[in-house]
Write a structure and sequence with these properties.
Order of helices and strands of chain A: HEHEEHEEHEEHHEHEE
CATH architecture of the largest domain in chain A: 2-Layer Sandwich
Number of helices of chain B: 4
Strand order of the largest sheet of chain A: 8-1-10-9
Helix content of chain A: 25-40%
Strand content of chain B: under 5%
Oligomer: heterodimer
CATH topology of the largest domain in chain A: Alpha-Beta Plaits
Number of strands of chain B: 0
Radius of gyration of chain B: 23 Å
Distance between the termini of chain B: 66 Å
Strand content of chain A: 15-25%
Structural class of chain A: alpha+beta
Number of strands of chain A: 10
CATH class of the largest domain in chain A: Alpha Beta
Number of domains of chain A: 2
């Protein structure tokens, strides 16, 4: 039997591919069985989660949303303003160039943009947008390069610059973090998946001025969609074209 | 070099080459045995043989599903492990410590090492688990 060069390479290639596939298959089949189980809820594009914050209702000096966020998501305070991590923070603004302008306060956070600059610059695809519009960081992938912090026009992201001590009082539903990753508001994705509202919204309703409302922008019946439809809702720095999913009323 | 010195060198070389086997033959048998504390009855999410080889792949798969897709199948992930094997010191660490494979899961994820660290007297507010 004579085998020419071409035939020989063909047989070799098939054999190599077969052995590779054979070694991979058992593991892959075992994993695939997961999804065959059915009845699994996953994030879907049917919902587009968003938030509307009514600045007129935000109580001055109230920090309930930020406190609730720290408790819910185990966000530490290092006691050094340069290094502190903020997922949501209250900021005070004043109209420039107006005599005796009134100081107004409102919470600022990650706006979960439709067109997120942080995601575009991430070199390892750690930042991604979930099907339901929530922009998240996969901290398993994050290498801590901080390009996203530079790209975000809203200062929504913080770098975990030092070791965070874990405590027994931590919320065990939310993983803690290693130093050397970037983190930000997740819109309390673990609560949304359970059908609950983000912790800041609940805290604002219970302890604050009920300024924040959370809902599905795709659902015409939701308060969020109604506020957006009214035309009074504005987005911060709309000129940048990032299309935030968090809207402000009365700003 | 004479013939004799050549032989001596060859024997020395062979002894050196075999030294790990010789050492092992005369030393005490390894004292460590992985002793996994297994729950009474119950069935793991996959059969044991599969899990021994592939648990890390399953955990990675679940991790990506949860983070990226929002598929929260708790029983397939670390929470699922914890529901039957409550302490990692009696389970994960038994093999991982022996082979010197560092687990980075616990840097962020909650999985107590042993029962003693979650006794009430040790549970100081703010203390580290």
């Amino acid at each position: 039997m004579s085998v020419d060069r071409r035939e020989f390479l063909k047989i070799g290639g098939i054999a190599a591919a077969g052995s590779v596939a054979g070694s991979l298959l058992p593991a892959v089949t075992g994993l695939a069985a997961l999804d065959a189980g059915g009845n699994v809820s996953r994030a879907s594009g049917d919902h587009q989660w968003g938030m509307v914050i009514d600045v007129d209702k935000c109580t001055k000096g109230c920090d309930a949303c930020a406190d609730a966020c720290r408790t819910e998501n185990n966000v530490p305070l290092f006691g050094d303003p340069k290094r502190d991590i903020h997922w949501i923070r209250t900021i005070t603004v004043k109209q420039r160039g107006v005599e005796d302008a009134e100081e107004r306060q409102f919470p600022a956070m990650c706006y979960h943009c439709e067109n997120p600059p942080c995601q575009h610059v991430c070199p390892v695809a750690a930042t991604f947008t979930r099907a339901d519009g929530i922009v998240l960081i996969d901290k398993h992938r994050c290498i801590g390069c901080r390009y996203c912090m530079v790209a975000c026009p809203y200062k929504a992201r913080s770098f975990v610059s030092q070791h965070v001590a874990h405590t027994w009082d931590d919320n065990k539903d939310v993983p803690r973090r290693m130093h050397g990753v970037v983190e930000k508001c997740t819109l309390c994705v673990h609560r949304i998946d359970k059908g609950e509202e983000p912790a800041c919204v609940v805290a604002c309703r219970e302890k604050g001025g009920d300024a924040m409302s959370f809902g599905d922008l795709n659902d015409p019946a939701s308060a969020v969609a109604a506020a957006v439809r009214s035309g009074k809702a504005t987005r911060i720095r709309a000129d940048l074209g990032t299309n935030p999913r968090v809207f402000y009323l009365g700003l | 070099m004479s013939k004799e010195s050549g032989m001596v060198a060859a024997v020395l070389f062979l002894v050196l080459l075999a030294s790990p086997f010789i050492y092992n033959a005369f030393s005490a048998p390894p004292t460590h045995r992985a002793e996994l504390k297994l729950p009474d009855g119950g069935q793991c999410v996959r059969d044991t043989e599969w899990m021994r080889r592939n648990h890390m792949k399953l955990l990675m798969h679940t991790r990506d599903d949860v983070v990226r897709e929002g598929v929260r199948l708790d029983r397939e992930g670390l929470k699922g492990c914890r529901s039957c094997h409550p302490y990692r010191g009696e389970f994960c660490d038994q093999c991982h410590d022996y082979v010197g494979m560092q687990q980075e899961c616990w840097n962020c994820h909650f999985y107590p090492e042993s029962k003693t660290v979650i006794n009430d007297e040790d549970r100081e507010p703010g203390g580290t688990p």
